[in-house]
Amino acid sequence: MFSSGSGNTVIKSKLISRRMFLLSISKAIVVVGVLGRLISLQINESSKYKTLSDKNRFREWKLAPERGIIKDYFNEEMASNKQVYQIHLIPENTQSIEEIFFRLKTILNISDKKIFSLKKKIAKQKPWEPIIISDNLNWSEFSRINLFLHELQGIEPIVSVARMYKDHSSAHALGYVSQVSAKDLKNKKYLKDMSVPGMAVGKTGLERRLDQEIIGEVGFQRYEVNAFGKRIKQIKVDPGKAGKSFRTTLDLEVQRYVTEILADKAASVCVMDIYNGDVVSLVSSPSYDPNAFVHGIDEAYWKSLISNDRKPLINKAVSGLYPPGSTIKILVALSALENKIIRPLDTVRCKGKIELFGEKFHCWKKKGHGIMNMRTGIKRSCDVYFYEVARRLGVDRLSETAKKFGLGKRVLQDFSEERSGVVPNTSWKKKYIGQNWYLGETLHSGIGQGYFQSTPIQLCLMTAQVANGGFEIKPRILFDKKKNNLKEYLKFKNENPGQPLTADLLVSNFDLKPLFKNQENIKIIKDSMYASSNEPGGTSYRSRLEDKRFIFAGKTGSSQIKRFTEEQREAEVKQEQLKYENRDHALFIAFAPVSDPKYAISVVVEHGGTGSKSAAPIAKKVIKKVLERHSLRQSINNLPGDSI
Amino acid sequence: MFQPRSIQSSLNFRDKLFSIDYVLVFSILILGIVSMFAMYSTDGGEFKYHTESHIIRFFVFFIMFFILSFVQIRFWHNTSYLIYIIFLILLIGVKYFGLTSSGSQRWLNFYFMNLQPSELMKIGLILFLAKYYHRISIENVNRLKFLFLPVFVLVTPVLLVVMQPDLGTSILIAAGGLVVAWLAGVRVKFFAYSMLIFIALLPIAISFLKPYQKVRILTFLNPEKDPLGAGYQIIQSKIAIGSGGLFGKGFLNGSQSYLDYLPEKHTDFIFTLFSEEFGFFGSIFILLLYGLIISRIVRIGNMTRSNFGKLYCYSFATAFFIYVVVNMGMVLGLLPIVGSPLPIMSYGGSSMMAIMLGLGIAMSCKIYKDMPVN
After folding, report:
1. Cα–Cα distance, A326 to B260 (Å, whole number)
2. Measured between CB atoms, which of B185, B283, B329 is closest to A42?
3. Which helix (H) or strand (E) holds B174?
4. Are B28 and B344 a contacting pair, CB within 8 Å?
5. Minimal Cα distance from B241: which residue of A?
């Protein structure tokens, strides 16, 4: 028994050892597996995991950059930045969100609605991401918060900068900024990786046009954070880069003056340097407060803006479309002269109306003007004279001239809201309306009615290009030193005092493109415009400036909203007797001074009645103001610091 | 043949001291010291609670290990069943008097420590089965009626631990028991049968699993699916180990752990922390230490004459190997996160106690290698 037991023990011992050997082999395989994994993690993929570890470790908080400044021609700030007091909340640092809001409500004036939307936002984002509770506190609110800060865990008072506009005068030209929307993020590629709480983007006007350059570069603070997102220590701070500043060609002083004159009329004024295309003034009225948008517009103000029938949010100067009315007559006349359809002294008898193609065409003057030639036709704005000219000219030749002088296409490429208008001709009508052109429509086109649609800036450009002797200019609203033809022009003028600028010189020295076939024709038109403003019987004679320095030459216009009925015509109903929305738009274009033209202007007053009564008086004041500031404008141009 | 026996029974203290496996003792000591540094690092480089109590525990149980080494192998053999029964009673006690922490009832409160009997059961089961298979003759090993008792003593504690619930420990207990049965010569087909039965019963078992346990298994299958939720631990552990690179980030510079990205860094993920700070070479060092410890225990098994000693040492060494490999496999993302401590390195008194007990018995096998057990 003992020995057999012993034998049994030995057999068992051998069995155990054999089985242990098998186990050891499998252990070795397992060890190779673990080793392989270690090698793969710590050697092969180490760099990947190092990156991941750093991603864990560091967290960046982006800082909104300071927006570039927009200045006027005189380096006066139009859109600048101001210090704002904000309070941010970091949800994870609070003990109770409810409690914080309850406390804040007692200290600040926060509506329940706002609190509700903030809470919704908090629920959506990570608990360590700051949320802006209020981005524009006044000093007393801010100091009150600071006083109670020890009880407000999670609240951080922040001094930041935000957009500030000096006044309302340039609201439409500059546009406004507002908080980044989901749509902005989708459409504007440069905003990628730029989503910072409190970041504002340009929504309209130059703010929108310049947004990419003016917005600056986002900065960041890099912190080492623990797994709960708590900041352990600051590793790096990059303050970002303030956006580029821009100088415009606008004159803030004139902008203000014009805004004041226009008051709350639905109107617009454009003033342009006729040689280099600098837009001196671009005002649309009524204006609005662009500052209201910066921190999120309040509902009541927004409602008042969109319900206002004078449409304060629309930049009428570039996106208001009006039939050019009688202002087109200068181009009709020019086109006729250029195409040798008519000679300046050819006459037409105006009896108040003519009948053509079985339709009656009325002159604005019921009794008629009598015998008209080109000069008197423009001076007195005789419709019958231009019916006849247009009939002979035909709409296609007219549209060619009109397009050449800047109608029918966008003038400034800076405004996404700018519209191109319509210069009708036979093929246009076929294409867009699908009908043949009627001859009667040619007559309506000849007095700027019918399908004609133009913007005030187009009318201003048209006037400028006539005034400068018929040369193409490229209007601009951003200051551009390189292409400043005016500088060379002035130099030439200084060196050759009293000597008029010849066409050849303008072409060769200043790289200007003539729009005329015969410059004499342009002179005839300019002279007719002089007559219209400065000779008795001219349509804007009553608004003339007699001071030699300021004498201007212009053309009135009114674009019909509603055709007069025969009864109204018989009763000689005046514009003032009509309902506001049925009154004609009043237009006026001009250049000044006549002796040595420098600026062109267009004024459009919506539902203003006639151009002579409501648009010309405005132009008169603006022209005086602009000319008074001309020498100042010239001098600033020669300053050494003009490159800003 | 009878000579050594008489020598063994008349060993004096000096002989016993000489026959201690000092390589094993020093390996344990070095591992213990390494674990203290690791623990110091988990406390953020300060001498705080975890470090302090880990050091105390290590030395207390290390001394216990030393003392237990001198207990005769015959004593362990004779009391094996009793020890198992005591541990089983404690385990049952947990069910009624146990402390609950994070949804799991695992601990018994003794005033000096909170004891986790399931950890002790890892050793208790090996002891029981080593004695059982030592005693039955080789012909009987694969007889059905001799299989009932081993199955019963294995399944009972495993079920008790599963219900605590503690999936990790129950698997490790079962693994230890299965290893003994395997070494004793139980045929492969019985393992295959029990595997089939286990798979058949799995759906029922799964219905008993707590939702968090189900999530853990699903998470293992695809940790990146829910990186901030259940997969978080695996991902963060892999990031920590991987970012350690060849040489590691340096002592006390493990950003993943000191910024709290590492979960359970004191216990299950202590290897991750060490590996992050000391890199690939550090990991290899730890692996070598464990390899050394395990091979020394196997060597004791080779030297010891009794089959009880052999069975015990081989099984314990293999179980020890499994504990290490399961823990590493877990933190390396090779196995699901089931909750299993790394022997000696991990914070935890019961685990330390059980391992030291196991090592003590193994050492006793060394000292009394030629002593017959019955």
Report:
1. 79
2. B283
3. helix B167-184
4. yes
5. A42
Q: Which structural domains are found in chain A, ordered by start?
A: 60-247 (3.90.1310.10), 252-289+318-636 (3.40.710.10)
Asked if residue B372 belongs to a domain, the reply is no
Does some domain include residue B332?
yes
Q: Residue holding tokens 């105006």?
A: A350
Q: Which residue has the tokens 């800082």?
A: A63
Residue B84 located in a structural domain: yes
Q: Where residue A358 falls among pLDDT bands split at 50, 70, 90?
A: confident
pLDDT in tens, B10-42: 678 888 889 999 999 999 999 999 999 999 999
Task: Tell me which residue in A16, A35, A43 faces B311 most closely, judged by beta carbons.
Answer: A16
Residue A151 neighbours by CB distance under 10 Å? 11
3-state SS, residue B338: coil
Instruction: Tell me which amino acid residue B161 is.
Output: V
| B314:A23 CB<8 A | yes
**A627 token code pair:** 């000319």
Give the gap in angstroms from C-alpha A233 to the nearest C-alpha of chain B: 11
Question: What is the value of ipTM here, to two decimals?
Answer: 0.90
pLDDT at A92 over 70: yes
Instruction: Tell how strand A177-179 and strand A70-71 pair up.
Output: unpaired
**Going by DSSP bridges, is the β-strand pair A246-247/A70-71 parallel, antiparallel, or unpaired?**
parallel
């990205």: which residue's tokens? B261
Q: Are A514 and A503 in contact (CB under 8 A)?
A: yes
Residues of B at the A interface, defined by Cβ within 8 angstroms: 137-138, 179, 182-185, 236, 238-246, 255-256, 259-261, 275, 279-280, 283-284, 287, 291, 298, 301-302, 307, 310-311, 314, 318, 321, 325, 328-329, 332-334
> Is the model more confident about A226 or about A211?
A211
DSSP state letters, B7-47: HHHT--HHHHHHHS-HHHHHHHHHHHHHHHHHHHHHTTSS-
Distance between B83 CA and the closest CA of chain A, angstroms: 24
Query: How many domains are there within chain B?
Result: 1
Q: What is d(CA B353, CA B349) in angstroms, rounded to the nearest whole number? A: 6
State the DSSP string of A146-196.
Answer: HHTGGG-TTEEEEEEEEEEES-STTHHHH--EEE--HHHHHH-GGGTT---
User: Which residues are bridge partners to A132 per DSSP?
Assistant: A88
Question: What confidence score (pLDDT) does residue B10 get?
Answer: 65
Contacts of B284 in chain A (CB under 8 A): 38
**CA-wise closest residue to A471 among A498, A448, A500, A505:** A505
Q: In this model, does residue B225 exceed pLDDT 70?
A: no
Out of B184, B283, B321, whose CB is closest to A38?
B283
pLDDT of residue A498: 63
Q: Is B163 part of any domain? A: yes
Helices (H), A291-354: 291-294, 299-307, 316-319, 329-338
Taking CB atoms and an 8 Å limit, are B332 and A34 in contact across chains?
Answer: yes
Q: Which of B255, B279, B328 sits opposite A42 (nearest CB)?
A: B279
CB A205 within 8 A of CB A29: no
Most confidently predicted of A32-41, A474-483, B13-22 = A32-41
Q: What is the pLDDT of residues A418-477, one digit of tens each?
A: 999 999 999 999 999 999 999 889 999 999 999 999 999 999 999 999 998 888 888 999
- Cis bond upstream, residue B165 (ω within 30): yes
Range of the domain at B59: 3-367
Are A193 and A60 in contact, with CB atoms under 8 Å apart? no
Give CA–CA dist A628/A389, Å, rounded.
38
